[in-house]
Design goal:
3 domains, Jelly Rolls, Immunoglobulin-like, TIM Barrel, eight-stranded parallel beta barrel, single chain, alpha/beta, 35 strands, 20% helix
Length: 634
């Protein structure tokens, strides 16, 4: 068979015989495509097609499964541990099973899509031994593509080149084009691989890979790429369900004012997927009670440098009084006979200290001394610092966050850089603080702004690509990117105060699609962690959020689902004090329902949470309503 001998499960290319006149046109066509045709016998013998099911597959994280299709077994990326692809993500290396002779090749993949949406996938070509060089592009590395943007990619077969003249036909990030070919050298058995990252937790957003094919081409006229890579291949693994999802929130007594209060805000955060909140302004016992009973935790925030008196005018003992007062408030923070101060887990001490002009050494000592004093008096809480771009000051904090927006998959190097920055000051990780909103609007058409985000070069094609994206897509992908590239959490600034970056407007309604994208990403990520899902209705009909209803008995109904397990029960709840105290009803049998009575003139929050047999719990479904007051007596 020449340079390749056929292995079990490995097929040589099918032979096609054409009239001599057709062969001439074939040569012309290949020349126009930039390829040189090898002699027919040599090409037929050296082309190699291998079925994905016969390749060694190394999961970097996640799971895969093998499924039947009209073309035989497919390797389906990704699935959960039970083989269910519903919301799974993953990172996989698919290894070619045998040595590859030195030379230049076209690389083709045959795959079938699932239910695609406009969230990212990526592939990387490499080898564990020898070298793989991509030709005719500026930089090698990750190639990012977005199937589903055109809404025509669902449940279809595709044959694409991962290196060749017919590149991946999905929406491709302009700065990571597909190479014209690859040149391999010294690549042994199982060395060459295609690494594929599924960064979309959307339901049934999968690829099933049927085969990979290497077709030799002549090296004449090829332009090898510079030996650089766009983005790190050493990506930190996701932290899984420990990933925190939160928002910054300004309490109602801070300007500018909102036309809704904290009770609605905390409910809306919880049903949008939050389990963390950064509080600005005084937070009292009833608010900490609501935060706690929504399953969230929070930190307070205040710039400690506001109290900096100047060089030589402070000493560490000065901090004890204020820190002890706050500790005592939280130690005695009780709402209706229940301790709720443990919902506060720390304090943000300062914001972006590295930003110009930076901090003097005495200000750094001041903050370090304050952090030490806080930890001394609050051993179960942490000082947080929200940093600017690396390199970071070490201010003796125990948790780092960083303003890292806008960061999506194509400039995800920013996540990896900040994880390393946190490790350089003795921490394990950091939390992304994002400014949400449409990246195209943030960029303002300015090359410098876009390239500052590490999206280089900022060509007209890049600006055109950004302009096609929506607020919801950018918000969704920023959260998913923070998770996929290993950050410990995602806490955008901010929830309220009706700013351009806010999740909601002054009335508490989602604005610009930002809340919708944020909430969809949170729900999809939690489903990828195996959490169940639940919906809440009023006797089978949707609630009018913040609508007005007659007082009396309400029948709450719910639908609950778990992709890989069974629902154990649904817990329904009613609160009339903003979420601090709850009356609960449990139903362990579908269809799930519960009855609650509500008096006239009340503001009521109803909620439902599904719990699976393995103990995993859904994000809350919830609504706030008002009941009509009793008519005044004449």
């Amino acid at each position: 068979m020449g340079a390749f001998s056929q292995l079990p499960g490995v097929e040589t290319m099918t032979r096609f015989d054409f009239p001599r006149s057709f062969s001439g046109w074939l040569v012309i066509a290949c020349v126009l495509l930039g390829l040189t045709v090898l002699p027919a016998e040599e090409n037929r013998q050296r082309s190699l097609s291998v079925r994905a099911e016969n390749c060694r597959i190394t999961p970097i994280y996640g799971h895969y499964t093998k499924v039947d299709s009209s073309k035989g077994k497919l390797v389906q990326l990704a699935s959960d541990s039970h083989g269910n692809p519903a919301h799974a993500m993953g990172d996989f290396q698919i290894h070619f099973p045998q040595p590859i002779p030195d030379g230049s090749y076209r690389l083709t993949i045959c795959w079938r899509t699932g239910r695609m949406n406009g969230t990212p996938w990526a592939f990387l070509l490499g080898a564990d031994g020898g070298s793989v060089v991509e030709n005719d592009i500026e930089k090698s590395g990750w190639h990012y593509f977005y199937p589903g943007l055109a809404a025509v990619d669902n449940d279809r077969w595709f044959t694409h080149d991962l290196a060749g003249p017919q590149p991946v036909g999905f929406s491709m990030f302009p700065n990571t084009p597909v190479a014209g070919s690859i040149t391999v050298s010294g690549v042994g058995k199982d060395d060459f691989y295609v690494r594929v990252r599924d960064m979309s937790p959307g339901r049934n957003n999968t690829f099933g890979i049927e085969s990979l094919t290497l077709t030799p081409i002549s090296p004449r006229g090829l332009r090898p790429v510079k030996p650089t890579r766009s983005g790190s291949t050493n990506i930190q693994r996701p932290v899984g369900s420990k990933f925190t999802i939160g928002v910054y929130y300004a309490m109602p007594w801070l300007n500018p004012k909102d036309d809704f209060s904290w009770d609605y805000a905390f409910m809306d955060m919880a049903r949008s997927g939050c389990n963390f909140v950064v509080i600005s302004g005084n937070c009292w016992a009833d608010q900490w009670a609501a935060i706690k009973h929504w399953g969230m935790r929070g930190v307070t925030s205040y710039g400690q440098l506001n109290g900096y008196p100047g060089p030589g005018k402070w000493k560490p003992s000065d901090f004890a009084k204020g820190i002890k007062e706050q500790r005592e408030f939280l130690r005695t923070c009780i709402w209706k006979d229940q301790y709720v101060g443990d919902a506060c887990v720390g304090h943000i001490m300062t914001d972006e200290p590295e930003c110009p002009p930076g901090l003097s050494e005495d200000k750094r000592r001041f903050l370090r001394a304050w952090a030490d004093a806080y930890h001394q008096h609050n051993p179960n809480r942490k000082v947080y610092v929200n940093h600017c771009d690396p390199k970071w000051y070490d201010l003796n904090e125990k948790h780092a966050t960083c303003s890292a927006a806008p960061t999506i998959a194509v400039n995800s190097q920013r996540i990896s850089d900040r994880i390393r920055a946190s490790q350089a000051i003795g921490l394990k990780n950091f939390t992304v603080v994002a400014l949400l909103g449409r990246m195209s609007d943030w960029g303002g058409g300015k090359v410098g702004s876009v390239e500052y985000w590490n999206i280089r070069p900022a060509t007209p094609a890049v600006f055109g690509w950004l302009a096609k994206r929506t607020n919801a897509q950018d918000a969704y992908e920023e959260m998913v990117t923070a998770f996929c590239y290993g950050a410990s959490g995602f806490h955008p600034y901010m929830y309220n105060q009706h700013r351009a970056v806010s999740l909601v407007d002054r009335h508490g309604n989602g604005q610009y699609g930002i809340r919708r994208g944020f909430s969809a990403a949170a729900h999809d990520l939690r489903r990828s962690h195996g959490w169940p899902a639940v919906t809440l209705t009023n006797n089978g009909s949707p609630f009018a959020d913040r609508g007005t209803y007659s007082a009396g008995e309400f029948t709450l109904t719910a639908q609950a689902v778990s992709d890989s397990g069974k629902i154990s029960r649904v817990v329904f709840g009613k609160s009339t004090d903003g979420g601090g105290v709850w009356q609960a009803r449990v139903d362990a049998t579908a269809p799930y329902s519960a009855k609650f009575s509500v008096e006239p003139g009340k503001t009521v929050i109803f909620r439902a949470r599904a719990i699976a047999e393995d103990g995993k719990q859904s994000i809350y479904a919830a609504n706030m309503i008002h009941t009509q007051a009793m008519p005044a007596k004449k």
